């Protein structure tokens, strides 16, 4: 997979042309670049299971940055060693051990929060920086060598909760439905902190469904019926991938057409294409009931960094970029800056020190910088599922919070 992604990313050379690459990379044709010694970066991602699609996105984002920057980071030619993180602490530990044996200068990736928590001590002991580009559980505290370019898992709910607290009318009724598990609890805690833990507009305790990532067509029916018995105006949920698609299908099949609110994972990727018949009438108009999500990125953000990134990503991979791809692209940006600061003979420890000095990142999501816990201080956006031309998309509505 790594070889295929690299080949596809290199197609950017032809797609953008000389002028496009110069604009993307910010280089001057009159300069002769100084090339340092080759380095190796480890990329940790799931190669099977429910996290595979996210893993592909983070590999695509990282490889795209390399393709746009001469296959270098900080002036050094780069080899990327890709390893499978699996889905548990043991498999994650094996992935880290494999990369450390290859003397990588730094590591990136990691999709599963259980894996991230499980490899924490190994990364800290090895003193090799890990720039995580997805998994970021709130419990990951007091780390020195683990940085994250994504978000803390309670933040999407916190951002959306604070927005809905301000905008939902008095007397509104909101039900919460999420799968069982620690990640759901983190999201719920963030949402209730943002919305207000005692706000009467939230009706009843959260309703928990199975955490099955590939649920059957009626797997959520009992919990959906329980939620609808509370006569809500809106439902806040936390699903992604196949589970998110099934939840929306089963909710609409139950003849409930109220508003759905969720962290942006619910509608990331190709899910809107698959849900078109569920969400769109025969006359190509949207059915009743909106889907609004909060996320740190939208592919239609109007800034120069995103115009370059999103255009290059679409030309290379024939799809719009997700937040997962963007965070991995930024992980490469972060490493590029830190390795350059670390000097001609960078060590893992020097790169880690430099990570604290890189300052603001000019990102497709908008400018951000690392905070004290080594996560981004960044803006959060409200997105609404609606037509962008004839394409059903997550359309940016407005900025709703700055967190971190």
From TrEMBL:
Under Pfam families, the record lists: Peripla_BP_6
What are the UniProt keywords, alphabetically? Signal
From the UniProt annotation, give the residues forming the signal peptide. 1-24
- Does Repeat show up as a keyword for this record? no
Q: Where is the Leucine-binding protein domain?
A: 38-389
Query: Record's InterPro entries?
Result: BCAA_transport (IPR051010), Leu-bd (IPR028081), Peripla_BP_I (IPR028082), TAT_signal (IPR006311)
* Lineage top rank: taxon: Bacteria
What the record says about family reads:
Belongs to the leucine-binding protein family.
Name of the protein in question: ABC transporter substrate-binding protein
